[in-house]
Amino acid sequence: MLKVEELSKNYGDFVAVDRISFSAGKGVVFGLLGPNGAGKSTAINCISGLLQPTSGRAFVAGHDTVAESKAARQKLGVVPQELALYEDLSAVENLRYWGKAYGLRGDALDARVAEVLEHIGLADRAKDLPKEFSGGMKRRLNFGCGVVHKPPVILLDEPTVGVDPQSRARLFDLVEAERDAGACILYTTHYMEEAERLCDSLAIIDHGKIIAQGTVDELRAKLGARDVLQLSGSFPPDATRHAMEALSNNGNHDLEFVSQEQQSITLTLSNASQHLPAIFEAVSVAGGNVSETSLRSPNLETLFLLLTGKELRE
Ligand SMILES: Nc1ncnc2c1ncn2[C@@H]1O[C@H](COP(=O)(O)OP(=O)(O)OP(=O)(O)O)[C@@H](O)[C@H]1O
Ligand SMILES: [Mg+2]
User: Ligand 1, atom 12: nearest CA belongs to which residue?
Assistant: First the structure.
């Protein structure tokens, strides 16, 4: 239903999206997980036709988004990161506007708008203006506007940013309902919990490039069962590295020295908590000291940390 082939977008000399490829079928949520500025919105805007790709192609329900842009657009529902609501139109009028824009008329329009209002939990606020709504209610209405014409492919760009936990849960339900009804959904986020919870498969994107791709389980398997251990303190560079490598050779076979910052080091290893005393001892012998320890079990966030050396959320 959705296919992206070697898609790139440059802004002048700056490469915002760098030859990304992925595909997703019916009834699937595909995630694009990456930090601020990774290129998620740029990718979505290329697929939706808002931006012209610099190179590469995208297909929506088999239609090339450039060569057959009109046919592709008919099959698409877009829920943009920036709210696309008319503040001087009521909730129901916003939905009717988008329904009409996609060719719905008469009874079909009335019925679908009523259904969506119910679905997004705003039936009792139908006549109110979005400016009187909370952030979560606006997000829900934004979502409704994107799906009012029952598109088979839906692009959701960070739909939960700035919403309270209750609205977030409600938005998850909405996404899952569209998926269960057979839609193919592209979901961008910088929250790994959302990606883990919602996405059947996903691509991790950073600086415009896909740096890992697969199902959540496949991506977790890349880490193996290793924990990620970050130590803060002071660490003489070479001596610390050598000490860790020596430890690794002397029994902690899967200990890996990932990176060293000015006042921290990052390691991965299995059952890290059992090996903490030996690690502290080795740091001390190397002339360093540990002031703080952070131990995390493997998840998409730690995978991102290992792949890029930085946190997903700055
Ligand atoms: N019109 C533009 N002109 C020049 N650079 C741009 C333009 N739009 C975006 N960029 C740059 O392209 C990169 C990708 O931006 P994009 O908005 O796609 O990221 P994002 O992953 O959606 O981030 P966020 O999570 O903050 O929404 C950023 O470095 C951004 O500064
Ligand atoms: Mg964005």
Answer: 16
| Protein residue with least CA distance to atom 26, ligand 1 | 36
- In this structure, the residues whose C-beta lies within 6 A of any atom of ligand 1 are 11, 14, 16, 34, 36-42, 81, 190
202 lies in the same domain as 253? no
Ligand 2 ion: Cβ-proximal residues, 5 Å cutoff: 40-41, 81
Which of the listed residues 196, 221, 246 is the one where a domain comes to its end? 221
Domain range enclosing 265: 225-297
First to last CA, the chain: 33
pLDDT digits (tens, 9 = 90+) for 96-122: 999 999 999 999 999 999 999 999 999
Please provide the size of the chain in residues: 314
Q: Identify whether the C-beta of residue 79 lies closer than 8 Å to the C-beta of residue 135.
A: no
Q: For the domain that residue 23 is a member of, what is the CATH number?
A: 3.40.50.300
Of 47-56, 128-137, 227-236, 258-267, minimum mean pLDDT range: 258-267
> Mean pLDDT, the chain, as a whole number?
92
Rg (CA), the chain: 23
Per the structure block, which two tokens stand in for 196?
């883990």
Q: CA-CA distance, 164 to 313, in Å (whole number)? A: 18
Beta-bridged to residue 33, according to DSSP, are 189, 204
